[in-house]
Design brief:
Elements (H helix, E strand, L loop, with lengths): L29 H20 L4 E3 L2 E6 L8 E4 L4 E8 L3 E8 L2 E8 L4 E2 L2
Antiparallel strand pairs: 1-2, 1-7, 2-3, 3-4, 4-5, 5-6
């Protein structure tokens, strides 16, 4: 039996395709604008939940988380309780407080909150 030698030739790409990462991203497309908005709202929501201060009508407030993962409450700049939080969504926070024995519902829009740095 005769042995056959096979030589393998490697094909070398001459146009440097291995360094191409694909098409460039169109930042003005509707999808990229939507993803940028979602990322921004996620950052603002994270800042709110972490207890960064925000302003409403020239008064400073912040979110204070409850014990054992409870929702917590909104406190003012001094630390006095203002209202209880019953729901935190992506862009809205629903709160309630009792005034003169009557339940008052408050809804905060995270998109429009003015965060204090």
């Amino acid at each position: 039996m005769n042995k056959v030698n096979i030589t393998v030739k490697k094909e070398v790409k001459l146009d440097n395709r291995v360094n191409n990462t694909g098409r460039p991203v169109n930042k003005k497309s509707a999808r990229q604008v939507r993803l940028a908005k979602q990322a921004h709202y996620n950052n603002v929501n994270t800042l709110f939940v972490n207890g960064n201060q925000f302003k409403i009508n020239n008064n400073t407030y912040k979110y204070s988380a409850g014990d054992n993962g409870d929702l917590g409450c909104i406190v003012d700049g001094i630390g006095f309780h203002q209202c209880n939080v019953e729901y935190i969504g992506r862009t809205k926070v629903k709160c309630y407080s009792f005034t003169l024995g009557k339940k008052v519902n408050v809804e905060l829009n995270i998109k429009t909150l003015e965060l204090v740095s």
